[in-house]
Amino acid sequence: MWVHPEEVLQAGALWITERANPYFILQKRKGHGDGRGGLAGLLVGTLDVVLDSSARVAPYRILYQTPDSLIYWIIAHGCSRKEITEHWEWLEQNLLQTLSIFENENDITTFVKGKVQGIIAEYNKNHDVKEDDDTDKFKEAICTFRKLFGMPEEEKLVNYYSCSYWKGHVPRQGWLYLSINHICFYSYLLGKEAKLVIRWADITQLEKSATLLLPDAVKVSTRVAEHVFSVFLNINETFKLMEQLANIAMRQLLDNKGFEQDRSLPKLKRKTPKKVSALKRDLDARAKSERYRALFRLPKDEKLDGHTGCTLWTPFNKMHILGQMFVSTNYICFTSKEETLCSLIIPLREVTIVEKADSSNFFPSPVSISTKNRMTFLFANLKDRDFLVQRISDFLQQTTSKIYFERETTGSGSLLSSSPQRSSLGSEGSSEGERQFNLNDNSVPTATQALMTMYRRRSPEEFNPKLAKEFLKEQAWKNHITEYGQGVCMYRTEKTKDLVLKGIPENMRGELWLLFSGAINEMATHPGYYEDLVEKSMGKYNLATEEIERDLHRSLPEHPAFQNEMGIAALRRVLTAYAFRNPNIGYCQAMNIVTSVLLLYAKEEEAFWLLVALCERMLPDYYNTRVVGALVDQGVFEELAREYVPELYDCMQDLGVISTISLSWFLTLFLSVMPFESAVVVVDCFFYEGIKVIFQLALNVLHANIHQLLGAKDDGEAMTVLGRYLDSVSNKDSTLPPIPHLHSLLTDDGDPHPEVDIFKLVRSSYEKFGSIRADVIEQMRFKQRLRVIQTIEDTTKRNVVRTIVTETAFSIDELEELYVLFKAEHLTSCYWGGTGGSNPTERHDPSLPYLEQYRIDLEQFRGLFSLLFPWAPVNGAQADPLALRFFRLLDHNGDSLINFREFISGLSVLCHGDLTEKLKLLYKMHVIPGKYVCVYCSQRGKEGEDVLRIGDWISLLLTCMSSSLSLLQSQFIELCKTLYNMFSEDAQEQELYHATATVTSLLLEMGEVGKLFWTRPGGVFQQRGQGEGEKESQARPCGPAKRDGRGEQLSAMEDIKLEDSSPKDTGTSSSMLISDDETKDDTSMSSYSVLSGGSHELDDKLHCEDINDDTVLVRSKNGPHDWAITFEQFLASVLTEQALVLYFEKPVEVAARITNAKNVRKVGCSLLSASDYEISLSG
C-alpha cells in the first residue's frame, strides 16, 4: 500500500535490494521467505519483534531517492511480492519518464511526495476510508495483532507494550497486546516463537508483584496457570489499563451492561500528542470520569470534560487554597491538594454569571462564578483562562433544565434554601393549592412529610436536657451554613466533617443526607420522575412486588411509624418504584430496613432518590440477586482485618466469623445490629464519608473485643460477644424515647455489656483506622471483584453439572469441560456479534436459573456441532443443513435458543445412546425439517411449570418419534444425503456407501408399496399441506387404532399437530436421490438405477390375507405425498447391513473431541479457548 513519505537514513541496513532504477528502489527484508535466511535472518526477525519494526507486517518496500541525494524516502510497502510489484510497475509506467523532465531535484522530490499523497487521498475517497485519530504506527500494530492472533476486525486493540514474559525461569522479550476482550503476548527470539492469548473473562487474579529478581512485574492468574510479565517501561499505566479491561470483563459476566460500549466518551479537547489509540484515550476518559463522579458524588451519567490546576479564594478564612478545578457537562467542582482541606460542588443549574475578573498580584488570572443564592466563588492562577471560560459558557448554554425555577418555593424555612426540592409534595391541609400526592388509594393516608416528624414522641423526664443539647447542635449547623454557604454549593471543610461526627440534628438529617449523598442533584434534574414511576407501577405484580409485600411488616416493626398503614404504604411505594426503575436489582432483602430509615427522615421522593444513590453509586452491586458488592466488600474487610488487626485475623478466619458479620453489618449499615438511635449516627457518617466509615467502624468493633474474641471457642460464642457489644452502643444525645431493639430482645439472656457511647466509638474508629483511603479501598475492591465473580461462575458451573449429571452418561469432568466450551461460545458471539437475528447480549441473564443463564442460537450451535458432534460432516457446507435440523429438534420450546441442558440432551444420544436411540434421532431430524413443530412438546415446554429433565426430554422425543410419523419422499431424499455426508473420510467409507445403497433400495421398494395403500386417518399427528387453500390432510395413527360403529378410528391424542413446511413433491423420482458429488462408486449408482422408475405392478402381489382385520385400506389418489416409510421400516432395513450397525454402535471418544475443540482457533465461527492458550513454541 502507498504510505505518506517518510525519511529513511540507511537504505541498505537489514534490507536486500531486488530492483532499482535512477529514482526508485524495491527492497525485501533480510530473512523473509527463505527459512529466516540463516543466522542473519534469525537476528533480523528477532530485532523486528523486539523493536516493533513495521517490517513484521510489510517485508517489502519501495524507496525514492534522487541521484545526487543521500536521503531516501519510503513511499510504499507491501505484505506480499505481488502487491509491491503492482506498485513498482505503476511507478515505471506512469512516473519514471515524467521525472526526467525536471531539472531541480527539490522539484522532483516535491512532485513525487505530492503524487503519492494524492494517490492516498484518492484511494481514501473512493473506498470511503475515514481518517481517525490512530497513528500510522498504531495502525501497523493493529495489523500485526490481527495477523499474529487471528483476531477479527471486531476485536479492538486498545494498546500494546514492550515487556518480557517469563516461561519458567527464562524471560522472553516481546510485545503485550491489550484488546477489549483479550490479553495477548508474542515473542520471536532466534527462531523460537511464543504466543499467548488469555480471555479477560477467565482471569481470576491480576496484581502487581515485586521481588528482588523482578522489582516491577504483573502477575496474571487464570484457573489453570499463572503468567508473569515484567520489564515494562511504564508499569503503572499498563496495570491501570489491565485493571480497567478486566473490570469491563467482570461486568460482562455480572450483567449485560458490560457489553454495551459507551461510544459517547469525550475526546481530548486540546492538542495532545497522539501516541496511543483513540480507544485508549476514550477508556482513559472513562476512568477519569468514574473517579470524578465518585469523588464528588455526582450522577452516574456525568462525564468529565477536563481539569486544571488553580487556587480558590475561601472567604471564611481569607486564604488561597491550592487545588484542582474539574469541569463537566453540568458541574464545576474543586478539591484542595491537601486532602479534606476544602471541596466544592457548583451545579451549572445554579450558576448565573461566569466572568473573567481583573488580574492583580493578589488574584492572577481570576475567574468569578456567581450563583442564584448570591454566592460568589473566585478562582485564580488559571493557565488557560480564556479557553476555560469559553468551555463553561458553552455548557451553560446547553443547560436546558428549568427544574430549579419550576420547583422553587419561597419562604420554605429550609436551612438548605438552595435546595428547593425540600418543599412539601403536599400540604397538611391541602388548602394552599399544592397537588396532594396520594397515588395509592383515596382511603389510604399519604405521608406528606418525613415520618419522624409525624411520630416523634418525647420522654417528659428527659425532655429538657436533651432538647437543649439538640438545640445547640442546630445552632452550630446554622452558624456553619451562614459562614460556609448553604445548599449544594456549600464549602465542605474539616469543620463540616467534625460537625457530622458530633451528630446531625434530627430535623436536619434528611436534608443533609440528600446533600452529602448527591441525591439532591438527581432529584433536581428529574422532576416528577418518582411520581410517574409510582403511577406506572400501581397495580403491577411480579416476583419483586411479592417479596416486598412479604417484608413490609418486618421493616422496623418496633417503630410506631411502621405500625400503621401510612408508613407501610409509603415504604411499599418507594420500594416498588425502585424495583420498576431498576429491574436488574428489583428488590433485595435489607433494602426494606434501609428504606424505612430513609423514610423516617426524608419525604417519599427524597427517600427514593436516597435509595437510588445507595444502590447505584455508594453501595454498587450490593442489592442484586447475588449481593456481589457485599461479597466484594467482605473480601476487602478480610484484607483490612489482616493488615490492621493481624493478631485477631487468623482466629476469626478459623471461626468463620468475618464472612458472617460483614454481610449483616454492611448490607444494613449497622441498622439491624445496633439500637436505632445509635445506628442513624453511623448512617450520618456514611453519607458524608462513604464506605470507608463502615470499614473503620467494623475494625474498631473487632479491636474493642479482641481479648474476648481470642478466647472464643466457636463461632457462636464469638457472635454472642459481638452481638452484646453492639447492643450496648447507645446515643445519650437522642431526643427520641428508647425504641426496643429486636436484636437485643433475641440475644439478651445474660448480663448486659457496659454502655458504649456511639460518638466515642465513631471518633475512636477515625483515630485508629482513619488512615484507610478511599482509593486503596477501590484497588482492593477490584482484586476482590475478580475473585467473587469468578467464584460465582464456578458455583454456577458446579450447580449446572450437579443438576444434570444423573441424567446423562457424561462424567462430571466431561460436563464441566462441555459447559466451559458452551459458555465460551456464547461469550465469543457477544464479543464479536454474529449474523444471526438474535442479540447475544439478551441471552445472558444472571437472574435466571443456572441452566438458563447461557443460551446459544443456531450460529453458535453450528460451531460446536462441527467440533463435538460425531455426525458432523467434514465439509462445512454439508454440515450446516444437518446442524440446522439438529438445532430445531433440540429447541423444544421454539424460542430459537437452546440452553445447556438441551445441548447435552442431543450430544448425549449421539455419544452414549444405543443403536435404536441414535437411529430414532436421525429419523426424527428429517421428519421435522424446517419449521415442523410438535405442538405437544412445545406446550409442555411453554405451559409446564416444571423443567423437563434430560431423560424426560429424550423420552418425549422418542415418544414423538412414533412409527406413525412417516417419512415422506422429499424427507427420505434428505435422509439419504445426510447418510452419505456422514460417512465422508471414514475408514470404512466404501463399505458404508454400499450398505447405504442397499438399505436405500430396500426402503424405496417399501415406499412404492406404500403409494398403493395408506392407512385411514385419525392418529396422533396431523400434517398440514403447504398449498394456499389446501385442505388439511389426515394424519397417520400412532399405533393400532380401533374402529367404532361408524367405521372411523379414534385418536389417542387429538391435540397434537405437526406442521409441515417442506415443499410439495411433484413427481420426484428415486433417481434424484443421489447426485454426482454424492456418488462414490459405480455400484452404489447402479443400485439406485435399478429402481429409478418404481413398480406399479406390486398391487397384484398384495393379497388380502396379509392385511389385518382392524385396518381399512384404500387406494391412494393423492399422488407423491402418499409415498412414505415408517421408523420401523427404516430401523429394520438398517439392521440388515452390518457395516451400518457397526458405524452407529461405534463408541465415541468424547475426551478427544473436547480436547480438539479447546485447541481449535477458528476465530469468529469456532471457539478461542476455554481458558487460556498453551504457549506454542516452534523451532
Question: How does this structure look, described?
Answer:
Strand 21 (729-730), helix 27 (742-747) and strand 22 form a beta-alpha-beta unit. The two termini are 31 Å apart. This protein has 42 helices and 28 strands. Mean pLDDT is 76; it is low at 261-275, 401-445, 742-748, 929-948, 1015-1121 and 1161-1179. Keywords: GTPase activation, Repeat.
CA distance, first residue to last residue: 31 Å
Q: Helical residue percent?
A: 40-55%
Poorly predicted runs:
261-275, 401-445, 742-748, 929-948, 1015-1121, 1161-1179
Strand order of the largest sheet: 17-18-19-13-14-15-16-20
Query: Rough shape?
Result: globular
What's the β-strand tally?
28
Radius of gyration: 38 Å
Topology, element by element:
Blueprint: E1 2-8, E2 15-20, E3 24-29, H1 38-50, E4 60-64, E5 72-78, H2 81-94, H3 96-99, H4 105-126, H5 136-149, E6 157-167, E7 170-179, E8 182-189, E9 192-199, E10 205-209, E11 217-221, E12 226-230, H6 235-254, H7 278-296, E13 304-314, E14 319-328, E15 331-336, E16 342-347, E17 351-356, E18 367-371, E19 376-380, H8 385-398, H9 403-407, H10 451-454, H11 463-484, E20 492-493, H12 494-501, H13 509-517, H14 519-525, H15 529-537, H16 543-551, H17 565-581, H18 591-601, H19 604-618, H20 628-644, H21 646-655, H22 657-667, H23 676-689, H24 691-704, H25 706-710, H26 715-727, E21 729-730, H27 742-747, E22 756-757, H28 758-769, H29 774-804, H30 812-832, E23 855-856, H31 858-868, H32 876-890, E24 898-899, H33 900-912, H34 915-927, H35 935-943, H36 950-960, E25 967-968, H37 969-982, H38 989-1012, E26 1013-1015, H39 1082-1090, E27 1113-1115, E28 1124-1125, H40 1127-1135, H41 1138-1145, H42 1150-1159
Parallel strand pairs: 21-22
Antiparallel strand pairs: 1-5, 2-3, 3-4, 4-5, 6-7, 6-12, 7-8, 8-9, 10-11, 11-12, 13-14, 13-19, 14-15, 15-16, 16-20, 17-18, 18-19, 23-24, 25-28, 26-27
GO molecular function: calcium ion binding; GTPase activator activity
Biased composition (Basic and acidic residues): 1054-1063
Biased composition (Polar residues): 1064-1073
